[in-house]
Design brief:
Elements (H helix, E strand, L loop, with lengths): L25 H11 L11 H4 L10 H9 L27 H14 L1 H17 L1 E3 L3 E3 L2
Antiparallel strand pairs: 1-2
Helix pairs in contact: 4-5
Length: 141
């Protein structure tokens, strides 16, 4: 697996996403096709680097455009990181992984892409299924 190609510049682990082409279920494919008004074979994602953005978001990705214009591979390599694109937001946090991006980028910067990729599934699980404990962060029960 080409980890760099399957990790978004903003730090999302495309290879663990439920919409990634190797992970998507028929149920998810059909659901998204209905919501997005696309054919079922058009909703699976190959990763934002591969297809110049996420297949389920109709707008161009300003973060991807920014990375390209600043000639970096990951946002943490930019002199402006963390910029306002990484300001945490509670709105949609249970559904969208925006708040996970900055943590992932910090881990990639600290331990490298390969080691982070080994941790990414656990990090994602703690984000979506963990119970937040003040002073400890999320833990899985």
């Amino acid at each position: 697996m080409d980890l760099k190609r399957l990790t978004s510049p903003c730090g999302l682990d495309c290879f663990n996403c439920q919409v990634y082409e190797k992970n998507i279920t028929d149920e998810m494919r059909n659901y998204l096709a209905g919501v997005l008004k696309k054919a079922p074979d058009e909703v699976a994602c190959k990763g934002c680097r591969e297809q110049n953005g996420c297949s389920i978001y109709p707008l161009p990705c300003a973060t991807l455009d920014c990375v390209k214009s600043n000639k970096v591979e990951f946002c943490f390599e930019c002199d402006k990181f963390p910029c306002d694109k990484f300001n945490p937001c509670a709105d949609g946090a249970q559904k969208y992984s925006h708040n996970l991006k900055a943590f992932n980028l910090c881990r990639i910067s600290k331990v490298g892409l390969d080691k982070w990729a080994q941790e990414a599934k656990s990090i994602r699980n703690k984000y979506f299924a963990g119970k937040f404990i003040v002073g400890k962060g999320p833990i899985l029960k």
